[in-house]
């Protein structure tokens, strides 16, 4: 019996995941956490074979996103981690694998794909949601686990946008034209394979650019 811990700040999501995970009779959910602090305490006290966790969860002391992934990878290097996230894009995929995740599943497809991810990870393989595999093909080949690199000015623009500033405000503050700032924003989104402002802000938060 595979012992699984699940973590998500929405109780209804954890209920659904538990049903899906235990449906085949081969897995048992041995613990649930609603955020990074509770998750790390649970991992310290409860032996498990697999972790299924959300990517972005509010925490009081511990960071979420890539910071949490890196910490877990250092403390529990042998523990396979499956990310189930609504922020499913190529940038998240690449950076998450680079920080130690073994699988990433889009929340929109979690009921169908989570059992497939668990099976793959338990056999020592990696897993990527079908919608993300399509994005990877569209984004081109190359090193799919490499963390996307932004220039210093692109990072600055993304950080300021995520902090609530408009393109016009950024242009005025850094003494560049509006068209230049717009182009740097567009280039950054293309590098990250992100198509919406919501995903861009989520990336900035998970990358530690903004609190």
Automatic annotation (TrEMBL):
Modified residue 4-aspartylphosphate is at which positions? 54
Task: Name the UniProt key words of this record, in alphabetical order.
Answer: DNA-binding, Phosphoprotein
Domain HTH luxR-type residue range list: 143-208
Extract the Pfam families matched here.
GerE, Response_reg
Q: Which domain of life is it from?
A: Bacteria
Q: Where is the signal peptide?
A: none
**Any one Gene Ontology biological process term?**
regulation of DNA-templated transcription
Q: Which Gene3D superfamilies match?
A: 3.40.50.2300, Winged helix-like DNA-binding domain superfamily/Winged helix DNA-binding domain (1.10.10.10)
Write out the GO MF terms.
DNA binding
The record, for InterPro entries, names:
CheY-like_superfamily, EvgA-like, NreC/VraR/RcsB-like_REC, Sig_transdc_resp-reg_C-effctor, Sig_transdc_resp-reg_receiver, Tscrpt_reg_LuxR_C, WH-like_DNA-bd_sf
**SMART domains under this entry?**
HTH_LUXR, REC
Where the record annotates domain Response regulatory, the positions are 3-122
Q: What is this protein called?
A: Response regulator receiver protein
**Species whose genome carries this gene:** Pseudomonas fildesensis
């Amino acid at each position: 019996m595979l012992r699984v811990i699940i973590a998500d700040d929405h109780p209804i999501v954890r209920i659904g995941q538990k049903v899906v995970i235990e449906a085949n009779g081969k897995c048992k959910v041995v613990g649930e956490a609603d955020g990074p602090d509770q998750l790390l305490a649970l991992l310290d006290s409860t032996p498990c074979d697999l972790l299924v966790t959300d990517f972005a969860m509010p925490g009081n002391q511990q960071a979420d996103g890539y910071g949490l992934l890196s910490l877990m990878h250092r403390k529990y290097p042998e523990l396979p981690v499956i990310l189930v996230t609504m922020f499913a894009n190529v940038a998240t995929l690449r950076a998450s694998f680079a920080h130690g995740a073994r699988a990433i599943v889009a929340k929109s497809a979690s009921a169908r794909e989570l059992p497939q991810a668990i099976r793959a990870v338990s056999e020592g393989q990696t897993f990527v949601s079908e919608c993300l595999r399509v994005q990877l093909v569209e984004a081109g080949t190359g090193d799919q686990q490499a963390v996307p690199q932004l220039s210093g000015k692109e990072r600055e623009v993304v950080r300021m946008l995520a902090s609530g500033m408009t393109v016009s405000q950024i242009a005025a503050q850094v003494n560049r034209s509006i068209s230049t700032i717009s182009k740097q924003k567009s280039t950054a989104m293309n590098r990250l394979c992100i198509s919406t402002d919501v995903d861009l802000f989520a990336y900035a938060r998970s990358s530690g650019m903004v609190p």
